[in-house]
Design goal:
By secondary structure, the protein is α+β, with helices and mostly antiparallel strands. The chain has a single domain, classed as Glutaredoxin. The chain contains four helices and five strands, in the order E-H-H-E-E-E-H-H-E. The protein has a five-stranded mixed β-sheet with strand order 2-1-3-4-5. The longest helix is centred in the N-terminal third of the chain and has 14 residues. Bound molecules: FE2/S2 (inorganic) cluster.
Length: 126
Amino acid sequence: MSQETLLVCILCRSSQTEARQAGLSEGQFLFNQLQDGLETSSEACIRLQPVRCMGACDRACVVAFTAPNKLTFILSQLSPSNSVSDLLEFSRQYITASDGKAPYKDRPATVKQNIHAVLPPLPNQP
Ligand code: FES
């Protein structure tokens, strides 16, 4: 299984109506959409992990791409329905890039526009 992980806050709520019509929080709706997209992919998949709040609640929806020895990308203000294909595309780029730093010009529009923070890899353990 991939060490690369996509953390998705499943408690995020915003004003999107599509998720509400399904009786879900926007974060859970986004998580479900990503899970469906990954299940139908034939490529190496990122590990999807639900999280209960990442402390950026006023900037819903919030996700983070993270892995050992790679940059961590935190994205916010994501549409639960319109960001899915771009997040899946960036998942593939993130897995492929040795340090997680996919070339900026190749990143999907959602990733370019919705970066909340980029964190360096943790220092190597002794
Ligand atoms: S509820 Fe999603 S970041 Fe807090």
